[in-house]
Amino acid sequence: MNQPSTTPPSRAEGLLTVQLGKTLKTQWVQWCSERDLVPGKALRQLVDKALTEGLELGAGEGGKPIRVVVGKAPDTGPKVGRETQFTPSEDEAITAAAKAQGFGFQEWVIAAIRAALAKAPSYGQAELEALTRSNQHLAQLVVELAALRRAKTLPEMAVDLAKLEAEVRTHVEVVSAAMAQGVQRWQLKL
């Protein structure tokens, strides 16, 4: 006869405790707060993304992962030339893709390499123009919202408008940074 288990199910099943330390935890909570994220849920999403997409490029010598990080400053050092040979079909495909995305041949190859190494976007001319127009419109909206907030006397309206203004400002900053990152020659660190 089967008897029910007297051991209660573990409440910690699926739970992982990570000691971040005071400084790192404070930075993580602040980072999440600035993005209106719940720290635990955001961390779970990062773990899920790492498992589904991976975080490293692959294994180097001895199976050690290779990790490339984009530096904060652009790489201003002298350029290093490399000769690369493409098959006729690769050359044709690269030429077509570069033209369609508003890149020159060499710019497209560099953008593809950047995307593979840093997992960060590079924008063609059409995307840069669209992002620029979007940012200009949003920046104007911020100015108009700020003027409207100052003109209102209702405290609730002022709070709502201030929150919306902050969200739009954040979007403008993020888009501006993404545009600048797509244009710069990045400094990559191994």
How is this structure best described in words?
With 190 residues, the protein is mostly helical. It has two domains: 21-55; 66-76 and 87-190. The chain is built from six helices and four strands; from the N terminus they run ααβββααααβ. It has helices spanning 22-34, 39-53, 88-100, 105-118, 125-151, 155-183; strands spanning 58-59, 65-66, 69-74, 186-189. Strands 1-2 form a two-stranded antiparallel sheet. The chain has a two-stranded antiparallel ribbon with strand order 3-4.
Radius of gyration based on Cα positions: 24 Å
Share of residues in helices: 55-70%
Instruction: Determine the mean pLDDT.
Output: 75
Shape: flat
Q: Which quaternary structure do these chains form? A: single chain
Rounded to the nearest angstrom, the distance between the terminal CA atoms is 61 Å
Largest beta sheet: strand ordering? 1-2
Percent range for β-strand residues: 5-15%
Largest sheet: 2 strands, antiparallel
Q: Which residues sit in consecutive blocks of at least 5 with pLDDT less than 50? A: 1-9
Count of individual helical segments: 6
DSSP strand tally: 4
Overall tally of structural domains: 2
Element-level helix/strand string = HHEEEHHHHE
The chain-level structural class is mainly alpha
